[in-house]
């Protein structure tokens, strides 16, 4: 198996992502659509901060890597379904399924070295 040339080991990246999610979501017991933008922003910024700080060679040198972080928060709380009769026409839903989703992305790169623009 080929060795990874990633600046941060994959196991550490998984820990960074988990920590950012736990920090952003805290003890939130339920999906709250009005909070998803804040949660996604906090998750993305937390991950980017950690990636930048852990991959910067020295405190005076800017981060030499490009990063893109995507975060999607999804809710799916299905309602109970009841089916009566022998054909599909008689199926009825006793309660509506509730769904919600918010997706966001963020990126970081050194514009002095690589210019500006999208890289994905």
From TrEMBL:
Domain of life of the organism encoding this protein: Eukaryota
Gene3D superfamilies per record: Tctex-1
Name of the protein described by the UniProt record: Uncharacterized protein
Annotated source species: Orbilia blumenaviensis
């Amino acid at each position: 198996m080929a060795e990874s040339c990633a600046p941060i080991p994959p196991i550490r990246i998984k820990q960074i992502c988990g920590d950012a999610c736990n920090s952003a979501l805290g003890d939130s017991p339920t999906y709250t659509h009005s909070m998803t933008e804040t949660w996604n922003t906090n998750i993305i910024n937390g991950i980017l901060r950690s990636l930048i700080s852990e991959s910067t060679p020295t405190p005076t040198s800017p981060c030499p890597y490009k990063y893109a972080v995507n975060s999607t928060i999804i809710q799916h709380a299905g309602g109970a379904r009841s089916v009566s009769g022998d054909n599909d026409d008689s199926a009825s839903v006793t309660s509506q399924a509730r769904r919600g989703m918010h997706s966001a992305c963020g990126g970081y790169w050194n514009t002095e070295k690589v210019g500006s623009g999208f890289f994905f």
